[in-house]
Amino acid sequence: MAHKELDLRERRRIEDLLNAKLPVSSIAAEIGRHRSTVYREIKRNAFAADTDEVAYLDGYYGMVAQRKASHRRARRRKLIRLEDLREAVVDRLKAGWSPEQIAGRIRFEGLPVTVSHETIYAHVYGPEGRAEELARHLPSRRKKRRPRYARRPRNPVFPPERSIHQRPEYVKTRETFGEWEGDLMIFERAQGSMNVATLVERKTRFAVLFRNNDRSSTHFMNSLMNVMTPLPRAARKSITFDRGFEFRDWRKLEAGIGTTAWFCDPQAPWQKGSVESLNGRARRFLPRDTSLASLSRPQMKAISERLNATPRKCLGWRTPTEAFREEMVKLR
Known about the structure:
By secondary structure, the protein is of the alpha/beta class. The protein is 43% helix and 8% strand. It contains 15 helices and five strands. A hairpin with a 5-residue loop joins strand 2 (195-201) and strand 3. The relative contact order is 0.08. Residues 138-162 are annotated as: Disordered. InterPro entries: Integrase_cat-core, IS30-like_HTH, RNaseH-like_sf, RNaseH_sf, Transposase-Integrase, Transposase_IS30-like.
Protein backbone atom coordinates (compact mmCIF):
# COMPACT_ATOMS: atom_id res chain seq x y z
CA MET A 1 0.00 0.00 0.00
CA ALA A 2 1.27 3.45 -0.88
CA HIS A 3 2.10 5.88 1.90
CA LYS A 4 -0.87 8.08 2.87
CA GLU A 5 -0.85 10.76 5.53
CA LEU A 6 -3.43 10.82 8.28
CA ASP A 7 -6.51 12.88 7.43
CA LEU A 8 -8.84 14.94 9.63
CA ARG A 9 -11.30 12.10 10.09
CA GLU A 10 -8.58 9.82 11.45
CA ARG A 11 -7.20 12.55 13.70
CA ARG A 12 -10.61 13.21 15.20
CA ARG A 13 -10.99 9.48 15.80
CA ILE A 14 -7.63 9.39 17.58
CA GLU A 15 -8.77 12.28 19.80
CA ASP A 16 -12.01 10.45 20.72
CA LEU A 17 -10.23 7.19 21.51
CA LEU A 18 -7.58 8.94 23.60
CA ASN A 19 -10.35 10.58 25.59
CA ALA A 20 -11.83 7.12 26.07
CA LYS A 21 -8.47 6.05 27.61
CA LEU A 22 -7.73 3.40 24.97
CA PRO A 23 -4.07 2.39 24.61
CA VAL A 24 -2.26 3.47 21.46
CA SER A 25 -2.04 -0.08 20.13
CA SER A 26 -5.83 -0.39 20.29
CA ILE A 27 -6.27 3.01 18.64
CA ALA A 28 -3.96 1.95 15.83
CA ALA A 29 -5.96 -1.22 15.27
CA GLU A 30 -9.21 0.76 15.34
CA ILE A 31 -8.14 3.15 12.54
CA GLY A 32 -6.14 0.59 10.57
CA ARG A 33 -2.71 2.14 11.09
CA HIS A 34 0.57 0.89 12.51
CA ARG A 35 1.00 1.76 16.17
CA SER A 36 4.24 3.63 15.43
CA THR A 37 2.29 5.92 13.09
CA VAL A 38 -0.13 6.79 15.88
CA TYR A 39 2.67 7.27 18.45
CA ARG A 40 4.46 9.60 16.06
CA GLU A 41 1.27 11.51 15.27
CA ILE A 42 0.49 12.15 18.95
CA LYS A 43 4.05 13.21 19.69
CA ARG A 44 4.38 15.59 16.74
CA ASN A 45 0.95 17.17 16.62
CA ALA A 46 -0.28 17.33 20.20
CA PHE A 47 -1.02 20.77 21.66
CA ALA A 48 1.40 22.13 24.28
CA ALA A 49 0.46 25.32 26.16
CA ASP A 50 2.90 28.22 26.26
CA THR A 51 2.25 29.05 29.92
CA ASP A 52 1.62 27.12 33.10
CA GLU A 53 -1.71 28.93 33.58
CA VAL A 54 -3.30 27.01 30.73
CA ALA A 55 -1.25 23.82 30.98
CA TYR A 56 -4.46 21.94 31.67
CA LEU A 57 -5.26 22.35 27.94
CA ASP A 58 -2.30 20.21 26.94
CA GLY A 59 -3.36 17.21 24.90
CA TYR A 60 -4.24 15.91 21.48
CA TYR A 61 -6.95 17.64 19.46
CA GLY A 62 -7.85 16.47 15.98
CA MET A 63 -8.37 19.92 14.47
CA VAL A 64 -5.20 21.31 16.06
CA ALA A 65 -3.21 18.30 14.84
CA GLN A 66 -4.54 18.74 11.30
CA ARG A 67 -3.57 22.42 11.32
CA LYS A 68 -0.07 21.71 12.62
CA ALA A 69 0.49 19.02 10.00
CA SER A 70 -0.71 21.35 7.22
CA HIS A 71 1.60 24.15 8.37
CA ARG A 72 4.52 21.74 8.51
CA ARG A 73 3.87 20.62 4.94
CA ALA A 74 3.59 24.24 3.80
CA ARG A 75 6.99 25.05 5.30
CA ARG A 76 8.51 22.15 3.43
CA ARG A 77 7.08 23.27 0.12
CA LYS A 78 9.54 26.07 -0.50
CA LEU A 79 9.37 25.54 -4.24
CA ILE A 80 5.61 26.18 -4.20
CA ARG A 81 5.84 29.42 -2.22
CA LEU A 82 8.82 30.96 -4.03
CA GLU A 83 8.05 31.31 -7.72
CA ASP A 84 11.45 32.67 -8.81
CA LEU A 85 13.26 29.85 -7.06
CA ARG A 86 10.92 27.29 -8.57
CA GLU A 87 11.41 28.64 -12.09
CA ALA A 88 15.19 28.59 -11.67
CA VAL A 89 15.09 24.98 -10.49
CA VAL A 90 12.72 23.81 -13.23
CA ASP A 91 14.76 25.55 -15.96
CA ARG A 92 17.90 23.75 -14.80
CA LEU A 93 16.09 20.42 -14.56
CA LYS A 94 15.00 20.85 -18.18
CA ALA A 95 18.61 21.63 -19.06
CA GLY A 96 19.57 18.18 -17.77
CA TRP A 97 21.03 19.15 -14.39
CA SER A 98 20.60 16.75 -11.48
CA PRO A 99 18.98 18.02 -8.24
CA GLU A 100 22.38 17.76 -6.53
CA GLN A 101 23.96 19.96 -9.21
CA ILE A 102 21.15 22.50 -8.99
CA ALA A 103 21.30 22.74 -5.18
CA GLY A 104 25.09 22.96 -5.18
CA ARG A 105 25.16 25.67 -7.84
CA ILE A 106 22.59 27.78 -6.01
CA ARG A 107 24.72 27.64 -2.86
CA PHE A 108 27.83 28.46 -4.89
CA GLU A 109 26.15 31.51 -6.44
CA GLY A 110 25.30 32.83 -2.98
CA LEU A 111 21.64 33.41 -3.73
CA PRO A 112 19.53 34.73 -0.82
CA VAL A 113 17.40 31.58 -0.76
CA THR A 114 18.87 28.11 -1.09
CA VAL A 115 17.22 24.75 -1.57
CA SER A 116 18.40 21.23 -0.84
CA HIS A 117 18.44 18.46 -3.40
CA GLU A 118 15.97 16.51 -1.25
CA THR A 119 13.50 19.40 -1.50
CA ILE A 120 13.92 19.40 -5.27
CA TYR A 121 13.29 15.66 -5.44
CA ALA A 122 10.22 16.08 -3.19
CA HIS A 123 8.88 18.73 -5.58
CA VAL A 124 9.59 16.63 -8.67
CA TYR A 125 7.73 13.64 -7.23
CA GLY A 126 5.03 15.72 -5.54
CA PRO A 127 1.62 16.57 -7.07
CA GLU A 128 2.85 19.72 -8.84
CA GLY A 129 5.97 18.03 -10.21
CA ARG A 130 3.99 15.04 -11.44
CA ALA A 131 1.53 17.37 -13.18
CA GLU A 132 4.44 18.93 -15.08
CA GLU A 133 6.11 15.53 -15.62
CA LEU A 134 9.36 16.86 -14.21
CA ALA A 135 10.68 13.36 -13.45
CA ARG A 136 11.31 12.76 -17.14
CA HIS A 137 14.08 15.39 -16.99
CA LEU A 138 16.01 13.57 -14.26
CA PRO A 139 19.17 11.66 -15.26
CA SER A 140 17.64 8.53 -13.68
CA ARG A 141 13.87 8.33 -13.60
CA ARG A 142 11.83 6.58 -10.95
CA LYS A 143 8.15 6.59 -10.17
CA LYS A 144 8.69 7.55 -6.55
CA ARG A 145 11.65 8.47 -4.42
CA ARG A 146 12.30 7.56 -0.82
CA PRO A 147 14.11 10.25 1.23
CA ARG A 148 17.84 9.60 1.37
CA TYR A 149 17.93 8.60 5.02
CA ALA A 150 14.65 6.72 5.15
CA ARG A 151 14.67 3.08 6.18
CA ARG A 152 15.03 0.64 3.36
CA PRO A 153 12.03 -1.65 2.82
CA ARG A 154 12.36 -5.18 4.16
CA ASN A 155 10.99 -6.53 0.90
CA PRO A 156 12.89 -4.61 -1.81
CA VAL A 157 11.22 -4.12 -5.17
CA PHE A 158 14.17 -5.65 -7.04
CA PRO A 159 15.85 -8.03 -4.57
CA PRO A 160 19.48 -9.15 -5.03
CA GLU A 161 18.47 -12.71 -5.85
CA ARG A 162 16.70 -11.40 -8.98
CA SER A 163 19.80 -9.62 -10.26
CA ILE A 164 20.94 -10.44 -13.78
CA HIS A 165 24.14 -11.71 -12.18
CA GLN A 166 22.13 -14.51 -10.57
CA ARG A 167 20.53 -15.44 -13.88
CA PRO A 168 21.64 -18.90 -15.11
CA GLU A 169 24.53 -18.92 -17.56
CA TYR A 170 22.51 -20.81 -20.18
CA VAL A 171 20.19 -17.78 -20.47
CA LYS A 172 23.15 -15.52 -21.20
CA THR A 173 24.54 -17.87 -23.86
CA ARG A 174 21.13 -18.28 -25.55
CA GLU A 175 21.31 -22.07 -25.24
CA THR A 176 17.67 -22.50 -24.26
CA PHE A 177 14.39 -21.39 -25.81
CA GLY A 178 11.79 -19.39 -23.89
CA GLU A 179 14.04 -16.75 -22.32
CA TRP A 180 12.72 -13.25 -23.09
CA GLU A 181 13.66 -9.62 -22.62
CA GLY A 182 11.10 -6.83 -22.16
CA ASP A 183 11.02 -3.05 -22.33
CA LEU A 184 8.82 -0.05 -23.08
CA MET A 185 9.26 2.39 -25.96
CA ILE A 186 8.43 5.91 -24.79
CA PHE A 187 7.00 8.55 -27.11
CA GLU A 188 6.46 12.30 -27.16
CA ARG A 189 4.70 13.95 -24.26
CA ALA A 190 1.57 14.52 -26.36
CA GLN A 191 0.92 10.77 -26.28
CA GLY A 192 0.28 10.93 -22.53
CA SER A 193 0.82 7.65 -20.70
CA MET A 194 0.55 5.54 -23.85
CA ASN A 195 3.62 3.56 -24.91
CA VAL A 196 4.59 0.43 -26.79
CA ALA A 197 5.74 -2.70 -25.00
CA THR A 198 8.48 -4.66 -26.74
CA LEU A 199 9.38 -8.29 -26.10
CA VAL A 200 12.03 -10.42 -27.75
CA GLU A 201 12.87 -14.10 -27.32
CA ARG A 202 16.64 -14.25 -26.86
CA LYS A 203 17.47 -17.41 -28.83
CA THR A 204 15.28 -16.80 -31.91
CA ARG A 205 15.10 -12.96 -31.79
CA PHE A 206 11.34 -13.31 -32.24
CA ALA A 207 9.68 -9.98 -31.43
CA VAL A 208 6.27 -9.11 -29.99
CA LEU A 209 5.05 -5.52 -29.87
CA PHE A 210 1.81 -4.29 -28.37
CA ARG A 211 0.34 -0.95 -27.43
CA ASN A 212 0.24 -0.28 -23.70
CA ASN A 213 -2.23 2.43 -22.70
CA ASP A 214 -1.05 2.98 -19.12
CA ARG A 215 2.43 3.09 -17.62
CA SER A 216 1.32 1.71 -14.27
CA SER A 217 3.04 -1.54 -13.37
CA THR A 218 -0.22 -3.34 -12.63
CA HIS A 219 -1.66 -2.47 -16.03
CA PHE A 220 1.53 -3.45 -17.84
CA MET A 221 1.84 -6.80 -16.08
CA ASN A 222 -1.81 -7.64 -16.80
CA SER A 223 -1.29 -6.85 -20.50
CA LEU A 224 1.95 -8.83 -20.57
CA MET A 225 0.31 -11.89 -19.03
CA ASN A 226 -2.51 -11.71 -21.58
CA VAL A 227 0.09 -11.74 -24.37
CA MET A 228 2.29 -14.52 -22.98
CA THR A 229 -0.29 -16.88 -21.47
CA PRO A 230 -1.21 -18.54 -24.83
CA LEU A 231 2.41 -19.75 -25.16
CA PRO A 232 3.37 -23.12 -23.67
CA ARG A 233 5.05 -22.85 -20.27
CA ALA A 234 8.37 -23.97 -21.80
CA ALA A 235 8.20 -21.04 -24.25
CA ARG A 236 7.96 -18.40 -21.51
CA LYS A 237 10.45 -19.51 -18.87
CA SER A 238 11.90 -16.12 -17.98
CA ILE A 239 11.98 -12.45 -18.89
CA THR A 240 14.67 -9.85 -18.19
CA PHE A 241 13.76 -6.21 -17.51
CA ASP A 242 15.58 -3.08 -16.47
CA ARG A 243 14.64 -1.49 -13.14
CA GLY A 244 11.97 0.87 -14.46
CA PHE A 245 8.97 1.45 -12.23
CA GLU A 246 6.73 -0.19 -14.86
CA PHE A 247 8.21 -3.58 -13.89
CA ARG A 248 7.91 -3.37 -10.10
CA ASP A 249 4.90 -5.76 -10.06
CA TRP A 250 7.01 -8.62 -11.43
CA ARG A 251 5.87 -10.91 -8.62
CA LYS A 252 2.41 -10.87 -10.18
CA LEU A 253 3.95 -12.21 -13.39
CA GLU A 254 5.64 -15.10 -11.58
CA ALA A 255 2.57 -15.96 -9.52
CA GLY A 256 0.21 -15.64 -12.48
CA ILE A 257 1.94 -17.52 -15.31
CA GLY A 258 5.12 -18.89 -13.73
CA THR A 259 7.57 -16.75 -15.71
CA THR A 260 10.75 -15.90 -13.77
CA ALA A 261 11.80 -12.24 -13.77
CA TRP A 262 15.42 -11.02 -13.84
CA PHE A 263 16.63 -7.42 -13.61
CA CYS A 264 19.57 -5.48 -15.00
CA ASP A 265 21.82 -3.40 -12.82
CA PRO A 266 20.66 0.20 -12.23
CA GLN A 267 21.26 2.43 -15.27
CA ALA A 268 22.57 -0.51 -17.29
CA PRO A 269 20.04 -1.07 -20.11
CA TRP A 270 22.76 -2.54 -22.35
CA GLN A 271 22.56 -5.70 -20.22
CA LYS A 272 19.35 -6.51 -22.09
CA GLY A 273 20.86 -5.81 -25.47
CA SER A 274 18.43 -7.89 -27.52
CA VAL A 275 15.40 -5.77 -26.70
CA GLU A 276 17.43 -2.55 -26.94
CA SER A 277 18.40 -3.60 -30.47
CA LEU A 278 14.75 -4.40 -31.22
CA ASN A 279 13.71 -0.95 -30.03
CA GLY A 280 16.20 0.66 -32.41
CA ARG A 281 14.86 -1.30 -35.39
CA ALA A 282 11.24 -0.69 -34.38
CA ARG A 283 11.82 3.08 -34.34
CA ARG A 284 11.86 2.98 -38.13
CA PHE A 285 8.16 2.19 -37.98
CA LEU A 286 7.35 3.89 -34.67
CA PRO A 287 9.11 7.27 -34.47
CA ARG A 288 8.71 9.30 -31.29
CA ASP A 289 5.95 11.46 -32.77
CA THR A 290 3.76 8.45 -33.64
CA SER A 291 0.08 8.94 -32.81
CA LEU A 292 -0.33 5.86 -30.61
CA ALA A 293 -4.07 6.34 -30.10
CA SER A 294 -4.62 5.69 -33.80
CA LEU A 295 -2.54 2.51 -33.87
CA SER A 296 -4.83 -0.51 -34.10
CA ARG A 297 -4.02 -4.04 -32.98
CA PRO A 298 -3.71 -5.28 -36.61
CA GLN A 299 -1.25 -2.45 -37.30
CA MET A 300 0.87 -3.41 -34.30
CA LYS A 301 0.76 -7.03 -35.41
CA ALA A 302 1.85 -6.03 -38.92
CA ILE A 303 4.88 -4.19 -37.52
CA SER A 304 5.84 -7.25 -35.45
CA GLU A 305 5.44 -9.53 -38.46
CA ARG A 306 7.60 -7.26 -40.62
CA LEU A 307 10.38 -7.31 -38.03
CA ASN A 308 10.11 -11.08 -37.67
CA ALA A 309 10.16 -11.67 -41.43
CA THR A 310 13.60 -10.07 -41.87
CA PRO A 311 16.51 -12.58 -42.24
CA ARG A 312 19.11 -12.31 -39.49
CA LYS A 313 22.79 -13.09 -39.80
CA CYS A 314 22.89 -14.34 -36.20
CA LEU A 315 20.25 -16.94 -37.16
CA GLY A 316 22.15 -18.20 -40.21
CA TRP A 317 19.97 -15.93 -42.37
CA ARG A 318 16.78 -17.54 -41.15
CA THR A 319 14.01 -15.18 -40.11
CA PRO A 320 12.96 -14.92 -36.45
CA THR A 321 9.58 -16.38 -37.43
CA GLU A 322 11.22 -19.47 -38.91
CA ALA A 323 13.52 -19.93 -35.91
CA PHE A 324 10.64 -19.47 -33.48
CA ARG A 325 8.44 -22.00 -35.25
CA GLU A 326 11.26 -24.57 -35.24
CA GLU A 327 11.58 -24.23 -31.49
CA MET A 328 7.82 -24.44 -30.98
CA VAL A 329 7.69 -27.67 -33.00
CA LYS A 330 10.28 -29.19 -30.64
CA LEU A 331 7.95 -28.57 -27.70
CA ARG A 332 5.15 -30.67 -29.14
